[in-house]
Each structure stands twice: as C-alpha cells, then as structure tokens.
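Example record

One chain of 195 residues, shown exactly as stored in the release files.
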Amino acid sequence: MKEIFEELEAEVDQNVVNRKYDEIERKNLLIANDNLIADCLSKEVFYIATNSELTVSRFTEMHDAHTVVQARCLELEAELSKLHDKETRSEADRTLDFRALDFQITQLTKKVTVLPEQNELYRAENAKIKQHYKELYSSIKITRAKHIEQTTALLTENENLKESVKTLCEIVEEARVERPLDRSLAFACLYTKQS
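Predicted structure tokens for this chain:
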C-alpha cells in the first residue's frame, strides 16, 4: 500500500512537472507566433513604404515629363507666333516651318495623352497591392486567433484530465482507508495510474 501511495505521489509530482512544461510550451508558442506576426508586419510595412516611394517617384517623373512637354509646347507656340509676325520670309519657308512645328506639336500631344493612362495603370496596380496585403494581414490575424483558441482548448482539456485523475485518486484512497485489505482497490489504483 505504501508503494502504491508513493507511486501516486510520484505521479502527482510528474503531473505538476508536466503542467509546468505545458505552460512553458504554450508561452513559447505564443512568443513564436508574436515574432512571426511582427516579422510579417515589418516586411509588409517595408514593402508598402518601398512601393509608395516607387509610386511617388513614378508620379514625379510623369509630372516632370508633363511640365517639360508643356514648356516645349509654349516655346513652339511662341516660335510659331514669331513666324507669323515675320512677313519678310517667303511663303514656302513659312509653310515648311509651320509643318515642322505642327508635327512636333502632334508628337508632344501624343506623349501628353499617354501620361494619364500610365497614371491610371499605376493607381490600379497600387490598389491591387494594397488589397493583397489587407487580405494577407486578415489571414494572419485569423490564423493567430485559431492558434490561441486551440492552445486554450488543449490547456482546458489538460486541466480537466488532471482533475479527473486527482478525483479518482482521492476516491481510491478513501476506499483504501475504509477497506485496507481489499486487493481490488490496489488494482483500481494501478489501473488509474496507467490510464
């Protein structure tokens, strides 16, 4: 009986150690999960910042190109105006100059027309990227919540099992006190330990 009681005490001690080990494991899982989330968020912030800077850079380039084209158009219009004012030139020379200026204005107008389309494409691409990262962030939050729920459920189940074992041990000990020579109680105690 003394051996069985000592074995029960050893098992209780082992359960206490297991419980502490489970708590340490749970804390390690939560720390690893938090580290993973922090890593993902830092990478997401870096990507968004980099992408935003690239987008700003593209918009700045387009704006600068647009400004250069507008300035060139104004220069060409001023030059065209000067040509109109000069009456000493021959009609043929003026016609050639007008055609050359019209051609340049047409080319510049085509370039200016393309810039808003490129701007819209960059905005659409930026919106898609933002949506992707919102979905990724939501997925990470859901996964983290599921891990926390699973860990909590496992800890609760572990506590319930420990309480059940403790209750069974108490019942067997009470029965042993009432009937010390009953071999079925020793068997019940061994069975409780093994299960």
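Notes: The mean pLDDT is 79.
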